[in-house]
Amino acid sequence: MKYQNVTFGANTSIAHILYDIVPTEDRFTKETIPSLALAMASIFPVYNEDGSYNFDNYNWSYKQQAVINPVALANEREDRMKRNKVMGKTFFNWEIISGLNLKTEFSTAWNSYRREIYRPSTLPTSANDRIVTNHHKSSQTISKASLTRRFSFARTARF
Predict the structure, then answer these.
(1) N or C: which end of the chain has fewer CB within 10 A?
(2) Do the beta carbons of residue 21 and residue 81 sit within 8 Å?
(3) Which residues contact 78 (CB under 8 A, 6 or more apart)?
């Protein structure tokens, strides 16, 4: 908004983001779906005849880490994150005299997330249902002011 020799304004941004996380980067010991699928022996079916998940590969391990059925892990394990983010900025610009400007800015950002991981007891590495929760909040504030003078070095040239 501009009024005579003063300009000021504000803007904001608000976001609420939901993530459904599937871990994909690490060795199969960290329960990442692609690496578990590669490490699982192909001699074991994904499902038993009764429709339940087959965990024979987890129990069958000779000189190898126990591998969880990747389909069971992908379908039964839940890993979700909720994130809230608010950003805002205000500014004020005053042209004191022609070519001399005072500008001030104030901005802030607030970030918060909550991650919840649920592992049901049907997975072989869980004795009972387990929920792991992480919280994180952060904020950042920036304030700055500047005084600028505009002038020219140009000379009039005559030929």
Answers:
(1) C
(2) yes
(3) 116, 117, 118
**Taken in order 50, 56, 58, 59, is the CA torsion positive or negative?**
positive
The pair of three-digit structure tokens given for residue 101, joined into one six-digit string: 């400007």
Overall size of the chain counted in residues: 159
The pTM of the full predicted model, rounded to 2 decimals, is 0.61
- Beta-bridge mates of residue 106: 90, 143
What is the chain's Cα-based Rg?
30
Q: What is the pLDDT of residues 66-105, one digit of tens each?
A: 778 889 888 888 889 999 999 999 999 999 888 899 999 9
Residues 8-61: pLDDT tens digits?
A: 999 999 999 999 988 777 665 567 888 888 888 888 888 999 999 888 877 776
Per DSSP (E only), the strands in 36-97 are 78-97
Residue 60 Cα distances to 42, 50, 66, 126, 151, angstroms:
12, 20, 7, 18, 80
Distance CA 10, CA 15 (A): 17
End-to-end CA distance of the chain: 45
Q: Which token pair is 154?
A: 């140009």
C-alpha–C-alpha distance, residues 32 and 70, integer Å:
8
* Beta carbons of 1 and 9 less than 8 angstroms apart: yes
Amino acid in the structure at residue 134:
N
